[in-house]
UniProtKB/TrEMBL annotation:
Keyword flag DNA damage: no
UniProt KW keywords: Signal
Keyword flag Signal: yes
Signal sequence coordinates: 1-24
Species of provenance: Asanoa siamensis
Annotated Low complexity bias: 46-61, 207-219
InterPro entries for this protein: Peptidase_S1_PA, Peptidase_S1_PA_chymotrypsin
Protein name: Trypsin-like peptidase domain-containing protein
Region Disordered, residue ranges: 46-65, 207-231
Amino acid sequence: MRRTLALVAGACTAVVLAGATAYAMTGDGSAQSPAGTAQLGKAPAAAAAAPRAPQAKEAAPGPVADLPKQISGVIDSVGRQRVGALESVDSLVGYHAESDRQEFSYPGADYVKVHFDQLTMLPGDYVTVADPAGTEVHRIESDPLDVVGGLLGSRAEESGAGRWAMSVTGDTAVVELHRALPDPLGVREVAGLGVRVDKVARGFSSAEQEAADSSAREATSAGQTGREESVCGSNEARDAVCYKSADPAAYKKSKAVARLLINGTELCTGWRLGTTNRMLTNNHCMVTSGDAYDTEVWFDYQCNKCGGHAVFKPTKVWGDKVLSTNRELDYTLFTVENFAQVQKFGYLSIETSRPKSGTEVYIPQHPGGDPGQIAMGSDSDDGGICAVDDPLYDGYGQDTDVSYYCDTAGGSSGSPVISRKTDRVIALHHFGGCPNSGVRIDLVYNRIKKLL
């Protein structure tokens, strides 16, 4: 099993991707009180361990290939939000290397995530991936199967295997090999054991992100992207914590919504459905169990003060298995590892009846991968609150969606659209364009109810 320590606090104020393209949502997180507060009127509502062996990847349509130091726009051909790049490296740590410690630094990056193509260690030895201060540490234990492979001379890249480590916040990751016993005779080296990093995913610098945003805006202006995302009027999405007093129920429900970091460089949003180990996101975010396996699921990545900069320490777990997926309804139901670690953040329930026009809604989300926000206020709706505009809107299929004018931007594909009246999910957000739209959850429920 793969387990990891939670991430340390980082920057909170959201980066608004105002012109970002297809499939997502946002808010700027800058206001000190949520939009539409006067109309709310709702009563208050009541350790690190060893990773598992790499899993075989399933054939599936993939995203645009990552090229080192190249910006190809914030939305790839699959529809996930791009926030980073892959760097090719070839770095040995310990055993055959000169040092048991290596640093991977990319000035300006907000996270660094290393990938191992060889992890063959003797029992008792382990590797840590940490920030320079040691406040965030992820530990990878030796695996008996890896040891056997090393002794037989096999290499991870020959079998197409490899293993991502959990990301660390900041622009530097420190990889260190810890030996259980000294090896003055060099037995480990002779045995063919070793630890090697072959690539690193790192977040865009501010300049790179600005270039990516500019590229996306140009594509939108040229009409090249089809389902453009945009803020509908003024951007009124706010930090989730801004609703802690104004709408406690909405704030509580936002805790069940998670940030998804996919393949180290792409983002979507997902949320916990029901009391068991079930998560829901878009099909264009995740298709196979191989996709889930390489996805970090961050819970409680939220600002601790309305309009502030500090965030709660998120709890991060790995995605695990895809149970059901469908392109036309654009959903994927999946599980996570270490489910017990995230149960405390609660869950969402779904409304099985068809949504109605005028139903007031709110959308907890992770726009651009930023700390959690809620889109509830709307200057495009009477009364200043987001509401269903068309309950029979065309998505990938006829009448599959509901439309609304909640403010959106890149990165929140897969967010829940929740009724303010019932606090139940009525749609799964996936398209923009003012109106934006989400797949009707009653249609999704008919496909997945036997799996819940």
